[in-house]
């Protein structure tokens, strides 16, 4: 089991969140229309970004290991949330000289990327307050 830690903190700027993982720092925010400063992606965009990043890296790593000519990967993601749950649509564009069998195998590998597995298995979130 691996552990990943991200710290999210918000200060005086409405809705701008500073995110840190010990190596990198980035921002999350809300659009101006929602009262934010639009200085970073929304929480939903960050979630989709995680899946898109993981999918792209997983496919590139697999193709490289197999010696396949995968020149580029582009993953388009959208999310629709309703009363019955959430649906994420992931459209994968593969560039390179790949056979139909290789393309089909890459689709299978995309569904096995670690973030996809996390999002499609039960998730438990343990939340607590820390005394200051």
From TrEMBL:
It comes from the Bacteria. It holds the Pfam family OsmC. Signal peptide: none annotated. InterPro entries: KH_dom-like_a/b, OsmC/Ohr_fam, OsmC/Ohrsf. PANTHER family: OSMC-LIKE PROTEIN, PROTEIN INVOLVED IN RIMO-MEDIATED BETA-METHYLTHIOLATION OF RIBOSOMAL PROTEIN S12 YCAO. This is OsmC family protein. It comes from Trinickia violacea.
